[in-house]
Amino acid sequence: MAACGLDFTVAVTEDGELFACGKGGQGQLGLGAAMHQQQPARAGGLELFANQRIRLAAAGSWHLAVVAEDGAVYTCGLGDWGRLGLGDEQPRRRLTRVPQALFAGSRVVMISCGGAHTMAVTAVGHAWTCGGNVYGQLGVGDTANRLGFTRVDAGQLGGARIVMAACGSSHSVMVSAEGGVWTFGASVYGCLGLNDEQDRLVPTLLAAEWTERCGCGARDPPASWAWATPTTGWCRRWWVRRRCLGVPRCARFPAAANTRWR
Description:
Elements lengths: L1 E3 L3 E5 L5 E5 L14 E6 L11 E6 L3 E6 L4 E5 L14 E7 L9 E6 L3 E6 L4 E5 L14 E6 L10 E6 L3 E6 L4 E5 L14 E6 L2 H4 L14 E4 L4 E5 L1 E3 L4 E5 L11
Antiparallel strand pairs: 1-2, 2-3, 3-4, 5-6, 6-7, 7-8, 9-10, 10-11, 11-12, 13-14, 14-15, 15-16, 17-18, 19-20
């Protein structure tokens, strides 16, 4: 798999090794120095990741987060506003492990990086966020930044089990195992899909007719809207905004039923 940040790229090989290249002035490449890299270079290794292979990687504007096969999270790069989830705002030039206790001891199965915030989903279906929160993109009910990972109140989700999360520059999206879709944060241009441009400080469930079309289930109805599910590697459905056409709603995106992606 691969991920792209602001002028930098990371990739995970089949053997679980992590490579990075591009802009690295904030240490976001995880190479141990604030340096740019014009060719892919290995970041860390088994000795750094406690002999665990890397399975997932996510890139933000100036930070990087990866998940090892044991569910451990490592972050590096710019630390402003707590986006690294390490309890401070110090930059890290080498990938640094986030204490698993911060996730109530559960292993992380998905990670996403936004402009200045990070979201993680654990095996028990809980969502955790940290970092910049000017627009409510952490979903915790206020606009205060969080230096460490904070659990999104399950009550706001009706007790749903979260299986997928994605971060934009200043907004976030979560998907439940039942197919529910929640958005929150900055709603500029209507990017939350809620038919207005009002920011949301807590996860807000999309209308029922949309959630049916934005689910991640294995039995999606044919000829629907696509949502990419990285846990399976199959492109199921994907919802896109067409605010540029003057309609702040989800727009249909054609995708082959069995399109494979990694």
